[in-house]
Amino acid sequence: MVVPTFNEQDNVAPLVREILASLPRGTLVFEILYVDDGSTDDTLAVLHALKAKVPELRIIRHSVNAGQSAAIRTGVRAARGEWIATLDGDGQNDPADIARLCTERDRSPPEVKLFAGWRTQRRDSRSKRWASKWANALRGRLLRDDTPDTGCGMKLFERAAYLDLPAFDHMHRFLPALMQRAGWRTASVPVNHRPRTRGASKYNNLDRALVGISDLLGVAWLIKRAKFPAAEELG
């Protein structure tokens, strides 16, 4: 489990407890890797207090806030598992859905390297739902990634395949398209979504729109320029 977090002091302990309940000890080998992305509240102190009680918990801290994509990549690089599950640190993703993603992986062909959560019933404000709907429609039309929801933090992917992707800020919003560009298949899996009950959102619709357009054009360029010919070793 890789959980990027920024100023979520009130969400850390409840979410860790939920993760432990969804991945019970003794039935699965796992680690919970929290990446504190330069928090300025008591997030780090809460994590250290939990560490004494939760041996599966690992903590990495960015000295400055670098963004969600950088935090996810830091966590994936430090992780020791072959498969990585991610979820947001705000508590809106339901850790119980991890098992659903794993079940979908186990019955899928090996060329499927990414299982993306699909929030079929968003628990956000009307303006945020509208903005996401517009952004997903535009992205889908331009990138043709056949993914209804790329903004969901709940994902399961193969670590090696992820680390082979080009890294850039906000790349986490384009993982299905980037995986497909690399020659892999992806799948969308319906997951639960919950309203935020503690803390405050770190994004607004204008910020997402301004960076999203330039990122979208950049990913479209990457896809257009991709060349991955088949190769075989002859001796």
Automatic annotation (TrEMBL):
GO cellular component: plasma membrane
Domain of life: Bacteria
Record flagged with keyword Cell membrane: yes
Gene Ontology biological process: lipopolysaccharide biosynthetic process
Coiled coil region boundaries: none
Gene Ontology terms for molecular function: undecaprenyl-phosphate 4-deoxy-4-formamido-L-arabinose transferase activity
Residues of the Glycosyltransferase 2-like domain: 2-162
SUPFAM superfamilies given in the database record: Nucleotide-diphospho-sugar transferases
Protein name: Glycosyltransferase family 2 protein
Any matching Pfam family: Glycos_transf_2
InterPro entries on file: Glyco_trans_2-like (IPR001173), Glycosyltransferase_2 (IPR050256), Nucleotide-diphossugar_trans (IPR029044)
Keywords: Cell membrane, Glycosyltransferase, Lipopolysaccharide biosynthesis, Membrane, Transferase, Transmembrane, Transmembrane helix
Annotated organism of origin: Luteimonas marina
